[in-house]
Amino acid sequence: MYRRILVAYDGSDHAKKAVAHALALAKAFGSSVCVITVAVDPSQASLDKAQKIASEAAEALKSQGVALEEVAVRSGTPATEILNYAEEKGVDLIVMGSRGLSALQRLVLGSVSQAVASRARVPVLIVR
Ligand code: ATP
Ligand code: MG
Ligand code: MG
């Protein structure tokens, strides 16, 4: 059913869970997986940090034999970059965490997962 899955990964515990779900779905459906990490700004230091974070997810997927299609590092507004990349790759499912790296615990859903779930044209799996 899902040919190509996008997992949005910021290195948070929730995003780690999202990777585990993407992995299980990819195995079950024979999907290929793309990973995106959005850097906070376009500086080389931020991009390098984002690349390291993205590589964690990529390694976890590869070590389980999942077909890793692409690992993308972008800078900009996370939700916008995730949505644009999803369109660009023609993914049919986006998997992400309900919360991310923010220390604020008052909201049920983080702003990135809320914006992606509201605007995406494909199903979004929000992992708690
Ligand atoms: P907020 O950022 O709104 O203060 P938060 O950090 O708790 O709150 P989100 O940022 O919405 O919550 O994180 C939810 C999920 O969105 C993460 O688990 C991850 O899957 C994805 N995500 C968030 N930021 C990024 C990012 N920079 N790059 C890739 N994925 C991200
Ligand atoms: Mg966040
Ligand atoms: Mg934030």
Automatic annotation (TrEMBL):
InterPro entries linked: Rossmann-like_a/b/a_fold, Universal_stress_UspA, UspA
Domain UspA: 1-128
Record-stated family: Belongs to the universal stress protein A family.
Protein name per UniProt: Universal stress protein
